[in-house]
C-alpha cells in the first residue's frame, strides 16, 4: 500500500512538471522542433555539464544538468502532444539517461583526482555510486525483458539526479555527502530489485 502511494505521488509530481512546461512544448511544436532533436540536445548538454564539472565548475555543471533534465521531460511531452511516440525514441531516451549519469560520474572522478592530494576516498564513492546506478537500471531493464514488472526501489533515476543536482549546486562538502548517500542507496536499491525479481520468480514457480 505504501509503495502505491509513493508511486502515485511521483506520477503527480511528473504531471505537475509537465503542466508547467506545456507552453514550452507548444513553442517547440510551433517551431517544428522534433522530440528526437530535443533528446539529442539534452544528451549534448549533459556532456557539456560533465566537462564543466571535471574542470571544477560544479555550479555551472549543476545548472547544465538541470537544463538537460528538462529536455528529458520535454522530449516525451512533445512526442505525446504530436503523437510521435516511437520505439526508437523511447530507446534513445533511456540510453541518453544512462549516458548522462555515466558522463557526470566520470567527470566527478576527474574532479576528485585533480585535488591535491588525490581524494581516493571520494573517487571510491563516485565509482560505487556509478556502479549502483547502472546496476539499478540494468536490473529493471533485464527484468522487464523477461516480462516482469520491476519499478520497486528506494532510489530511482529522478531521485538520483535531484540529489546530484543539489550536491553540485551547494559545493564540494555537500556534494561529497551526497555522493556517499548515492553510493549506499543506489546499491541498496539494486539489491531491492534483485530480491523483488527473486520473489516474483518464486511465485511463478
Question: How is the topology of this model organized?
Answer:
Blueprint: H1 2-20, H2 22-31, H3 35-54, H4 58-81, H5 87-113, H6 120-145, H7 157-170, H8 172-204
Keywords:
8 helices, 205 residues, 84% helix, Four Helix Bundle (Hemerythrin (Met), subunit A), mainly alpha
Summarize the entry for a quick read:
The chain has 205 residues and is an all-alpha fold.
Question: Could you characterize the architecture of this molecule?
Answer:
By secondary structure, the protein is an all-alpha fold. It has one domain (2-204): CDP-alcohol phosphotransferase transmembrane (TM) domain (Four Helix Bundle (Hemerythrin (Met), subunit A), Up-down Bundle). It is 84% helix and 0% strand. The chain is built from eight helices and no strands. It has helices at 2-20, 22-31, 35-54, 58-81, 87-113, 120-145, 157-170, 172-204. Helix 2 packs across helix 4, helix 5 packs antiparallel against helix 6 (120-145) and helix 7 (157-170) runs antiparallel to helix 8 (172-204).
Task: Label the CATH architecture.
Answer: Up-down Bundle
Q: Helix count?
A: 8
Q: Provide the number of structural domains.
A: 1
Secondary-structure class? mainly alpha
Average residue pLDDT:
86
The separation of the N and C termini measures 25 Å
| CATH C-level class | Mainly Alpha
- Percentage of residues in strands: under 5%
Profile the largest sheet: none
Spell the H/E element sequence: HHHHHHHH
CATH superfamily: CDP-alcohol phosphotransferase transmembrane (TM) domain
Specify the helix fraction band.
Answer: over 70%
Tertiary shape: globular
Please compute the radius of gyration using only Cα atoms: 18 Å
Spans of 5+ residues with little confidence (pLDDT < 50)? none
In CATH, the topology is named: Four Helix Bundle (Hemerythrin (Met), subunit A)
The count of DSSP E runs of length 2 or more, i.e. the number of strands, is: 0
Amino acid at each position: 500500500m505504501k509503495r502505491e502511494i509513493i508511486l502515485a505521488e511521483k506520477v503527480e509530481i511528473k504531471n505537475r512538471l509537465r503542466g508547467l512546461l506545456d507552453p514550452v512544448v507548444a513553442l517547440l511544436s510551433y517551431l517544428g522542433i522534433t522530440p528526437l532533436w530535443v533528446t539529442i540536445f539534452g544528451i549534448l548538454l549533459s556532456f557539456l555539464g560533465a566537462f564543466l564539472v571535471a574542470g571544477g565548475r560544479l555550479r555551472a555543471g549543476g545548472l547544465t544538468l538541470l537544463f538537460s533534465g528538462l529536455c528529458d521531460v520535454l522530449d516525451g511531452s512533445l512526442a505525446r502532444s504530436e503523437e510521435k511516440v516511437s520505439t526508437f525514441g523511447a530507446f534513445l531516451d533511456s540510453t541518453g539517461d544512462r549516458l548522462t549519469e555515466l558522463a557526470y560520474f566520470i567527470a566527478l572522478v576527474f574532479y576528485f583526482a585533480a585535488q591535491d592530494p588525490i581524494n581516493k576516498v571520494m573517487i571510491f564513492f563516485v565509482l560505487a555510486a556509478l556502479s549502483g546506478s547502472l546496476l539499478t537500471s540494468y536490473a529493471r531493464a533485464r527484468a522487464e525483458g523477461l516480462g516482469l514488472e520491476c519499478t520497486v526501489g528506494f532510489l530511482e533515476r529522478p531521485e538520483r539526479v535531484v540529489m546530484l543536482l543539489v550536491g553540485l549546486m551547494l559545493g564540494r562538502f555537500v556534494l561529497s555527502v551526497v555522493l556517499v548517500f548515492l553510493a549506499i542507496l543506489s546499491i541498496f536499491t539494486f539489491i531491492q530489485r534483485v530480491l523483488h525479481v527473486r520473489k516474483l520468480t518464486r511465485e511463478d514457480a
